[in-house]
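Retro notes, item 3 of 5
We never archived the inputs for the 2-(butylsulfanyl)adenosine complex last cycle. Fixing that now. Sequence and ligand:
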Amino acid sequence: MSCASRHLYRYHVLDEPEVSDAEYDRLFDELKALEEEHPDLITPDSPTQRVGAPPSDRFRKVEHLTPMGSLEKVTDDESLFKWADDLRKRLDSDEPVAYVLEPKIDGLAVNLTYENGLLTRGATRGDGVQGEDVTVNLRTIPSIPLRMHGDDAPSVVEARGEVYMPLSGFRELNERIAELGQKLAPNPRNAAAGSLRQKDSSITASRPLAIWAYGLGLAEGLALETHWDELEWLREHGFRTNPFAERLETIEEVAKRCTDWERRRAELDYEIDGIVIKVDSLEQQRILGALHSRPRWARAFKWAPMTAQTKLLKIAIRVGRTGALNPWAMLEPVQVGGVTVSRATLHNEEDINRKDIREGDLVIVQRAGDVIPQIVGPAGRHAKGTKPFRMPKKCPLCGANIVKPEGEAMHRCPNRACPSRGLETLINWVQGPADIEGVGEQLMRRLWELGLVRSLPGLYRLTKEQLLELDGFADKSASSAIEAIEHSKRTPFSRVLLGLNIPDVGWVTAQSLARHFGSVDKLAAATQEEIVEVEGIGPERAEAIAEWFSDEENRRLVEELKALGLRFEAGAEERPVEGPLTGSTYVITGTLESFSRDEARQALEAKGAKVGDSVSKKTAGVVAGESPGSKLAKAEQLGVPVLDEAALKDLLAG
Ligand code: IVH
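Structure as it came back at the time:
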């Protein structure tokens, strides 16, 4: 394998690049120059040979060596269990049945034929018997090996998989399309299919396509016993197989995982529309056979799609606690991925206009990457009479003139007394840093509207008598709310810092500041230069922090809260501890069984470790509990070690 091929493989298949993109480009150019000088050295699997075939007018029909079936679906546990029962009856043996689960990628199936290890043909599924020959286009996809690894390839073998477009690539592609004023791709699957059917393979090459290989077609001469072996065989021979595939021993576990995945799918950078469940044993598969080209040994557990179209009723504005104007979309309620969606975030004016969406438009809504739905773009032409969106000139709450600071994307209300800022700060405080039980957004809104609480100090002056005047409060509930508020005065210093709403101070920064300075007095007295010394804080943020503390009104706020009894000194829990894990940073995701996330954080910190918010190459490990977030995928992508609860306990035990 050439050097460039190896790096292409490491980057696109293993996701473990060894060299920078620039270094790869250099190697590629070097290879190209060498081949130009010595054309006799060019091999068909050279990375230079991925693009360059002349455009074709139409795709030839080709027959697959073995037909490509399709999957019968199940949509709930009941039909899943019924299937498992049926399997047992048909197999009529004591042999246990094990299953392999794989994400059902929402792309398009392709069949790759390798002869003596070399990719000779790639075709779409078509009707399962005949597909279209799209070899030249498939060759441009970097995660498809042009030559299989190893020297034990059978003379002919068919590898099968799903070609798809990652969501990040899909969004970028649509942004490019929008800039050209052309019609957007409605979803990633369409975009992948369109990209693969380009007449000019250099266009396909410019699209961010990838493959997950999920099985073999014709595989004569391979002595494999299970589907799991097939996946391993594919992996060993240079194919990209999905890291989330797993083998399970019981149908109950299968059902549980299918339910888990419906929630987790939003964390992936590609769309899945279900889980494919396959009987693992190839012998059992053979006995079970197929019905109308649908194997009895496999099922697709399917969910509702993750994109939908609906009407954008109105673009509303919410003024955040930093004064930023956050536009959001009021949508005609629509089902997306099994959830009713009636609102979506819209980042800022620029973003709205780049996506070219207007009030009254039919838009494409997507739930992906996170739980908050996004608007991809208009579903077609603009509705008649619609206008491009403009931010209001005046704050919708206080009427102050809106400003847009140079170089910033956000519009802001400059009025520090603007009601929204105080209210949002309060809501954030009770739900986030102070986490006051039984005191939430609804109550804060009511207290604000009645003028009973208009600031953080105001919250701590609230009385039980005042609460009793509110509808829905009785003696007991009012007492417990006041008690909970009182109790929150014990909120640790770092959390108090987080709640003060200092620009750009998030959880990790607040903690670093609390540790470094130890008290608010020292922090407030620190210069920008002194703040820069805190790990992870750059000069700009340091300046913003110093500026915040030099403001008279902010100082008064701190003094007032101090007088009310809130903590402005770091407690023991915030002091860094020297221990066996000093110098390493861990990230926690998902729900752990025997610890809360906070407890796990404290336990790690007690051993000297830091606990961060985001995964990077420097992260020593990611502790993943039940239903982990996208951080797990990120860790897997970067090759950061993943610890389950048992491994965490071992680590803590030293
Ligand atoms: S196995 C006999 N595995 O689902 C069918 N299919 O309706 C064997 N798909 O056309 C297919 N991810 O496009 C299989 N991990 C996976 C899959 C998968 C997506 C698609 C494929 C196929 C359709 C079946």
